[in-house]
């Protein structure tokens, strides 16, 4: 009952705080201002306060856990996640407020990865620490940019984040670790996202801004390391499960970022300059409504998470055929979405 009560209160708090932001301020953090470098899918200026509510509920969830489970020691690794997520929040807040230069954002993302490594939150896929550290830097910086780039249409990043975090919560339930610190904090984070989704669902009244996408990017990258890359209580911790599981869990954002990067570079454009050429946009060009695209990405995230949970916690053994099947699913998903981006559309921006 305490988990259900906490979850309901966190959702209500998220709805309330976002509602207050929406009511009392219409200017700070507003997107689609003239001269803005990031191109938004919608044409209407909207406040970008969602990220602030994420961070507040995230901190409150940690504080409540520390009070209720006072006898339990907080591991050093989690303080690394807390600091890294806070840095992500601050660099996103600075970008929303001052439109900072890309190099400053990159340095902030580099700092997030460094903090995680310094607090023993790094990928352990290889026997070489140098390779593990390098892959961790690539993963953290890449994921923070991927989540930021995915925030290009109403409800997309919010839905995908809910799907990824829900997969982790299910993993903790399956391993009977509901008193785990991460379970409590991530339960609060999902509640914050659901409360924000009320305002972010198409037609949205609010964006999460870089404040939200950078915070979520850092947090998701960290839990990706702990629960997916490093095989949290996996029965099969061989190379292929550990390498494929995180790709599967984050597949929608990874595919979108990969498609956009390939297409923009092939046209001689920078992959970091905004545009209406994401997989989400191309699905819209095919005739899907914005809310249907959000449902599609949420469903794909849940399907990917479900496959990972089944093989890692139920089947508990990856056979050769299973590995081939999962890798094949990843490849087919990429080919499908990448193929859509190569179609010529009447409404496509040239």
Walkthrough of the structure:
- With 350 residues, the protein is mainly α.
- The protein has one domain.
- The protein is built from 13 helices and no strands.
- The chain has helices at residues 2-24, 50-68, 76-98, 102-118, 129-150, 156-174, 181-200, 209-229, 239-249, 251-266, 279-285, 290-314, 320-341.
- The chain is globular and about 60 Å long.
- Mean pLDDT is 88; it is low at 33-37.
Q: Name the helicity range.
A: over 70%
Give the overall form. Answer: globular
Low-confidence stretches: 33-37
Compute the separation of the termini in Å. Answer: 54 Å
- Portion in strands: under 5%
Query: Structural class per helix/strand content?
Result: mainly alpha
Rg, alpha carbons: 19 Å
Give me the oligomer status: single chain
Calculate the mean pLDDT score and round it.
88
Order of helices and strands: HHHHHHHHHHHHH
Number of contiguous helices: 13
Major pleated sheet? none
Domain count: the total is 1
Total strands: 0
Short description:
This protein is mostly helical. The protein has 13 helices and no strands. Mean pLDDT is 88; it is low at 33-37.
Features:
350 residues, mainly alpha, 13 helices, 0% strand
């Amino acid at each position: 009952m305490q988990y259900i009560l906490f979850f309901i209160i966190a959702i209500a708090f998220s709805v309330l705080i976002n509602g207050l932001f929406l009511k009392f301020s219409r200017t700070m953090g507003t997107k689609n201002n003239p001269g803005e470098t990031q191109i938004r899918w919608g044409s209407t200026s909207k406040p970008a306060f969602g990220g602030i509510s994420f961070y507040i509920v995230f901190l409150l969830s940690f504080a409540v856990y520390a009070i209720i489970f006072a006898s339990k020691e907080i591991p050093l690794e989690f303080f690394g996640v807390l600091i890294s997520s806070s840095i992500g929040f601050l660099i996103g807040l600075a970008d929303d407020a001052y439109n900072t230069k890309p190099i400053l954002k990159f340095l902030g993302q580099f700092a997030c990865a460094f903090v995680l490594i310094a607090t023993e939150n790094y990928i352990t896929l290889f026997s070489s620490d140098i390779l593990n550290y390098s892959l961790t830097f690539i993963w953290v910086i890449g994921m923070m940019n991927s989540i930021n780039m995915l925030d290009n249409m109403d409800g997309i990043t919010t839905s995908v984040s809910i799907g990824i975090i829900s997969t982790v919560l299910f993993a903790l339930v399956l391993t009977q670790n509901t008193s785990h610190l991460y379970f409590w904090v991530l339960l609060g984070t999902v509640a914050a996202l659901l409360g924000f989704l009320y305002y972010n669902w198409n037609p949205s009244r609010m964006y999460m801004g870089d404040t939200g996408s950078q915070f979520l990017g850092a947090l998701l990258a960290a839990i990706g390391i702990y629960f997916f890359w490093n095989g949290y209580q996996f029965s099969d911790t061989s190379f292929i499960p550990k390498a494929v599981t995180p790709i599967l869990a984050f597949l929608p954002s990874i595919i979108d970022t990969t498609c956009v990067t390939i297409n923009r570079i092939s046209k001689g454009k920078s992959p970091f300059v905004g545009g209406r050429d994401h997989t989400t946009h191309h699905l819209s060009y095919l005739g899907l409504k914005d809310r249907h695209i959000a449902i599609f990405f949420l469903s794909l995230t849940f399907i990917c998470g479900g496959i990972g949970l089944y093989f890692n916690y139920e089947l508990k053994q990856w056979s050769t055929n299973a590995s081939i099947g999962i890798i094949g699913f990843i490849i087919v998903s990429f080919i499908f979405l990448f193929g859509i981006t190569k179609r010529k559309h009447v409404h496509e921006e040239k």
